[in-house]
Design goal:
The chain has helices spanning 23-33, 44-47, 194-202, 241-252, 266-276, 297-301, 346-365, 417-421, and strands at residues 40-43, 51-52, 56-57, 67-68, 72-75, 89-97, 111-115, 127-130, 159-162, 172-173, 184-186, 207-211, 215-221, 225-226, 237-238, 255-262, 282-286, 313-318, 321-322, 326-332, 337-342, 374-379, 385-386, 392-400, 405-408, 425-429, 435-436, 441-446. With 448 residues, the chain is α/β, with parallel strands linked by helices. The chain is elongated and about 90 Å long. The protein starts with 22 loop residues before the first helix and ends with a strand.
């Protein structure tokens, strides 16, 4: 698979003089350097969720011909004028008009044609009488349904009794009543969801030019990690980060590839990352970015990829946030593939993904809605929440839109993944706030 390159990363900005990056500075640095992927032509099924890069005009009117909106009978208006159940209009049935018919059947004075929903209005006909307004050609009372053509071929001939009059164009979908040839169907920048894909198909477009979904490779690190389903030995834990982050990448709109846990060995990790460069538009690592003796991501990334290419490299930073203080961002390899290095604690990695990786994925897609929606909510808690001075804290919680309240879930520990699984919002406590009391208002990031 040949790599799709779109993003070019300049040399990472210098770290703030205070030594700590703010959340906004780190995010701004990412978004200032990650650029949208180059457009490609995709088949409609593959284009779902992608951003259109060109205006699409309608080549033919939709619908392309007058057609019936009901199962019934195509008639001339004068032939059914004054019709009642007591004195029905009796018309000669000249045949069937099914969807896809070639339009050779015509309706003359005193005649009618059985017509199916979506079938073209035959020449001479001016309106459609619903089958429920007729005897269905049976000679009896009001029909409730159209008899199948195969089961009752005589229904396409003989006579039909019409019990009500109709006006001209009744139950007829006019040619071009949806869109006219030359109309603007979709504008550049439109995100292609199911209705948009349906419209493109309806106007005959088999392919469309879009920015593709980015390919995101998630790599978790740690010799203590075991894959779910395997047996745990002493001192081991299951690898949850790669599963959670790959799922989050798909939720953001990416094509996600998950690489199972890589051991705490710089050469092994370096080889794993280099193997993934060919299929990655964005690389995400989790773990190994702190200051421990076995935090090998920094060591491995110091020489990964093509060292002769200018402008690359990953900068490891400390952010004024909790959880998620250690972070890394930069580019690696000949194509300057962007890489975000996240902490290893499950809550830290997921919060970091929501704040930094998700916007990067959306930027690669060329989307304008980079961020999760936010709301203001009143804290609903039994006691005040404390927060470290100088750090922006992100707590897990559940948001009630009806009451406008948010309730904390679990504690502040960055390992409390069970609480994260029950949260649908992140409570944002600003850097200059050390305590939030019940009844106070605060921002919440809606992640549910």
């Amino acid at each position: 698979m040949s790599p799709r390159r779109c993003s070019t990363l300049s040399s990472t900005a210098a770290s703030p003089s205070a030594g700590l990056w703010s959340v906004d500075e780190h995010l701004d640095d990412i978004l200032a350097t990650v650029k949208p992927l180059d457009p490609i032509e995709l088949q409609l099924p593959e284009a779902q969720g992608c951003v259109l890069v060109e205006d699409v005009t309608v080549p033919v009117a939709l619908p392309p011909f007058d057609n019936s909106s009901m199962d019934g009978y195509a008639v001339r208006v004068a032939d059914v004028a004054g019709a009642t159940e007591e004195y029905p209009a009796v018309l000669t049935v000249v045949g069937d008009v099914a969807a896809g018919s070639d339009g050779q059947l015509a309706v003359g004075p005193g005649q009618a044609a059985r017509i199916m929903t979506g079938a073209p209005l035959p020449p001479g006909a001016e309106a459609v009488v619903p089958v429920e307004w007729t005897d269905g050609g049976t000679g009896g009372g009001a029909a409730t349904t159209m008899r199948p053509a195969g089961a009752a071929p005589e229904g396409a001939s003989g006579e039909v009794r019409v019990h009500r009059p109709v006006e001209a164009r009744a139950h007829v979908r006019a040619r071009g009543s949806d869109v006219q040839a030359g109309d603007l169907a979709l504008t550049a920048g439109t995100v292609l969801g199911p209705p948009q894909i349906g419209l493109l198909a309806a106007i005959g477009r088999g392919t469309v030019r879009v920015r593709p979904r980015p390919r995101v490779v998630v790599i978790s690190t740690g010799s203590e990690l075991v894959q779910p389903g395997d047996e745990l030995a002493q001192g081991q834990i299951y690898d949850s980060n790669s599963f959670a982050l790959a799922a989050a990448a798909r939720d953001a709109g990416a094509i996600a590839y998950r690489v199972g846990a890589v051991t705490d060995d710089a050469e092994t990790l370096r080889a794993a990352i280099e193997d993934q460069l060919l299929r990655a538009d964005l690389l995400v690592t989790t773990g190994g970015v702190s200051v421990g003796a076995y935090d090998v991501v920094k060591e491995a990334l110091s020489s990964v990829g093509d060292e002769d290419e200018p402008g690359g490299g990953v900068d490891f930073r400390k952010l004024a946030m909790q959880p998620g203080k250690p972070q890394g961002f930069g580019s690696i390899g000949r194509d300057h593939t962007p890489l975000l290095a996240l902490p290893g604690n499950p809550v830290s990695s997921y919060v970091s993904f929501e704040l930094f990786v998700r916007p990067a994925i959306r930027a690669l897609m060329g989307r304008e809605d980079l961020h999760r929606p936010r709301a203001r909510a009143v804290l609903k808690a039994e006691s005040a929440l404390s927060s470290p001075a100088g750090k922006r804290q992100f707590l897990r919680g559940t948001y009630d839109a009806r009451s406008g309240t948010v309730t904390p879930v679990g504690g502040t520990g960055s390992h409390l993944i069970a609480a994260l699984a029950h949260a649908d919002a992140l409570l944002v406590v600003p850097e200059d706030t050390t305590s939030v009391k019940p009844g106070d208002e605060l921002d919440v990031v809606l992640i549910g």
